[in-house]
Amino acid sequence: MSVYDYTPMWAGAHYDPAPAGGEVTRLDLYTTPERNGPVVASAAPAVHLRAGVYRFDVLTVPPGRYWGAVTFTPNSSGQSVRDTSVRLDLPLGQGLVGSPEAVADALGVPLPLTSPQRSRYEEEIRNAQADVAAYLNRPSLVPRATTLRGVTPRWTDALDDIDAWPVHLDDIAEVVSCRPNSDGTYDVDLLVGLNGAQEESVVRYVVAHAAESIRQRQDQGAGAGRRVSSVSAEGQSISYDAAPAAGQAGALPTIDSLSRLRRLVFEPLSRPPRAPWPYSSSRRRWR
Description:
Blueprint: E1 2-6, E2 9-10, E3 13-14, E4 21-30, E5 41-43, E6 47-50, E7 53-58, E8 64-75, E9 81-90, H1 100-107, H2 115-135, E10 144-151, E11 173-180, E12 186-192, H3 200-218, E13 226-231, E14 238-242
Antiparallel strand pairs: 1-7, 2-3, 4-5, 4-8, 6-7, 8-9, 10-12, 11-12, 13-14
Helix pairs in contact: 1-2, 1-3, 2-3
């Protein structure tokens, strides 16, 4: 079973129907982008996790790409609407920032994937994630789930705000859900650490990294910075196109694009800092 967190889309914007008395009712999955064939799997009802986020428990289906349609009512007096912006590469929750299907799209490989292709692409995704995690000074791009038990919030009007809880963490933290106890305290579920799958820049880089690693192995004779553009019918001649330079339209993303997500590392001083002159006992005057 996979867990899918859905953000409703209505009138061209992200929208939470709960404050207006609406609800998210159903998710249907199809094998075609037209969404007019038989329903492969359904999930209902959705659980309201926090403002604007609803969770579906999706039944186990064969690995692959599925197109979804979510039914919800925007408000208490409105009619049901159907959001067809959902596309899922299942299974989810495997610790991968990107999907093998996304790598296949970057390579121009048709879907569905074979088992050897899927295994190979997953391995390249993990390699790319390891490189990104090292650059960002993080142990992983997958957050760690933890639970705070018996805590009292600082305020109760925004319990999905991490600052509402008396917790001190040296990393990114997100409130997943909270449950009230009989004594007035709460049990709070948190995700601690960078959730790479929710960062579009991380997903794009990891997928591009994995696809380029595979492409370079396939085109080892092409040389750096070139792409195969055409091959003769007999396979005796190959034409190449130059790859766009960094910063140009169509260029691969560079790892510098992730610099804003780097985790700062603080090292303790080996000795107390010396006060500046003239307050220090040292005779040296700092200029």
